[in-house]
Amino acid sequence: MKKLISIIMAVFLFSTPVKAYCKGNESKVHFLNTIQSDAIIIEGDSANYLIDCGWSYCRGYILSYLKNNNIDSIDAIVLTHYHDDHRGDVVGICKALDVKRVYMSPHENKYKYKLQKELKNIGVEVDFIKRGWNIKCGNVLLTAIGPIKSHGTIENNNSIVLSGQIDGISYLFAGDMEADEEYDILKNTIIEKYDVLKTPHHGLDTSSTEEFIETVKPAVAVVTSDGYESPEGKAIKNIENSGAKIYRSDKNGNIVIKRSLDPSIRIQISTEFK
């Protein structure tokens, strides 16, 4: 079953809107239902990106989803951090799609150099990115705004946090950052409202503090949850109190967001279970 929901929005963008260099292809952001893990496909007009790779066993599902949606290439992958529900089978996905570049966190972790070696062995370039890094291609602009500093062995707080402008819609991809990294970003970054928030850490109470959510003030919050361990009550309450419309992968399945062609309806959101 597939449900298409059009939402009328009047929200401020994070920064000056990025001009869309449309070549006839719709630009979409796909939040896949990979069971309390992240696998986010950015389908731009000139390039495609994958943020995180879900669990290892999600490799086949991700590849099948890409094929079924006529996405035949991924220009680069960003791994927000090294936990297994985010790094997944990145090597296998790169092999299958002939991905040329993977961006990873520079912070120390036992998987950091292991993945670097495995990826280089199959011809994939690896770049370690820090705050301030950005990439722009066509109507997609991604900028790393976190982490501000290393949080040592607290891997969630080493998550790469990406601010995105995609076809005129502002996104915040928050990885698994917890309250300490939220505080660091709020203290060191000028943040305005976002259209779409990928809720940090699957909607668990470690994250989505009241101050953070009230600052970001998303119109839409996407939660990559399983319905059992996640999400949790306090985080969801903070998001609800902000006025955001919440979409959960455990309830809504795959969540796809794009800009509406109707100027009176800025954002279209479709959901489907497969």
UniProtKB/TrEMBL annotation:
Q: Which SUPFAM superfamilies match?
A: Metallo-hydrolase/oxidoreductase
> Which Gene3D superfamilies does this one have?
Ribonuclease Z/Hydroxyacylglutathione hydrolase-like
Q: Where is the Metallo-beta-lactamase domain?
A: 36-226
Signal as UniProt keyword = yes
Q: Which Pfam families match?
A: Lactamase_B
Q: Which GO terms describe its molecular function?
A: hydrolase activity
Q: Does the keyword Hydrolase apply?
A: yes
Q: What keywords tag this UniProt record?
A: Hydrolase, Signal
Extract the signal peptide range.
1-20
Q: Which SMART domains does this one have?
A: Lactamase_B (SM00849)
Q: What is this protein called?
A: MBL fold metallo-hydrolase
| Organism of derivation | Clostridium cadaveris
Q: What is the lineage of its organism?
A: Bacteria, Bacillati, Bacillota, Clostridia, Eubacteriales
